[in-house]
UniProtKB/TrEMBL annotation:
InterPro entries: AB_hydrolase_fold. This is Peptidase S9 prolyl oligopeptidase catalytic domain-containing protein. It comes from Amycolatopsis keratiniphila subsp. keratiniphila.
């Protein structure tokens, strides 16, 4: 089912009443043929009025097609700053993937870049894999298993009884076939210099599960920064590198025959 494409602020409404807010910005002449989808990480709920969008003031958003997505937990309660985009995902996940398809078709885009920081990185990886497409995941210190984090007890456990709260399946358990030969999904992950916990306990298992494939690259920045902090210049440099590598990987994979892929858009995680 196609989703109507309308630029600007819009929303999906869940049958249980939850709301997923998003903002689609498409310049008159995008500088590339890619759609960028951005998931935010934990927000300062005491300082932000929802909806919360990652990098909404990003300079590149005036040049590229960008879809900014707000975690539905922020529209439901002020008691959580981090919901891993799990609330209502049984309906929101397929709808957002349908929106991706509609935007790609409407504008003739040839690829999609899924951005995410921290808990948003967890969401970006999930949507990237479920899309079934030759997309790029560009993630900063992504989570593998949300339940390993102290934030889970504080910001998720009080809300687990809400209807349609998605199962926090570890990223490593969702990776069974994403590296199928002939499929050109590409993962570029970045961690800051002082993020040893996230590098060792979350990113390393993801890399090990991926088998350190040619379709994966991980970078540790020598930036003296802790979790959640990355300079705009580093973000731009790493993104440009990720896109170049992804394009080369897609070109190489195009030579090989492509196997059929299962439908990954429906159901709970």
């Amino acid at each position: 089912m196609e989703v109507a494409v309308k630029t600007g602020r819009s929303r999906f409404v869940h049958s249980a009443g939850y709301v997923l807010e998003y903002d689609l910005a498409v310049p008159e002449e995008p500088v590339s043929s890619y759609l960028h989808v951005l998931f935010h990480g934990a927000s300062r709920i005491e300082a932000h009025t929802p909806p919360v969008f990652a990098r909404r003031q990003w300079t590149r958003s005036a040049q590229e097609a960008c879809l900014f997505v707000c975690d539905p937990i922020h529209m439901h309660t002020k008691g959580s700053n981090c919901g891993w985009f799990l609330l209502g995902e049984n309906e929101f996940l397929p709808k957002l993937l349908e929106l991706r398809e509609s935007v790609m078709a409407e504008y003739g885009f040839t690829g999609c870049v899924w951005h995410g920081l921290s808990s948003g990185g967890y969401a970006a990886l999930k949507y990237w894999m479920r899309s079934g497409a030759d997309d790029l995941a560009f993630v900063i210190a992504p989570h593998d298993d949300p339940k390993q984090l102290w934030q889970w007890e504080r910001y998720a456990v009080p809300f687990l009884d809400l209807p349609a709260w998605g199962e926090p399946v570890p990223t490593t358990r969702q990776m069974d076939d994403w590296l199928t030969p002939g499929v050109a999904r590409y993962l570029h992950a970045v961690v800051s210099e002082k993020e040893a916990y996230y590098a060792l306990e979350h990113l390393r298992p993801i890399l090990e599960r991926a088998g350190y494939s040619d379709g994966v690259r991980a970078v540790k920045l020598r930036n003296g920064r802790d979790h959640g902090f990355i300079a705009d210049a580093d973000y731009e440099t790493q993104l440009a590198s990720a896109i170049r590598d992804w394009e080369a990987y897609r070109a190489k994979a195009a030579i090989a025959p492509r196997p059929s892929q299962p439908d990954r858009t429906g159901g709970r995680a």
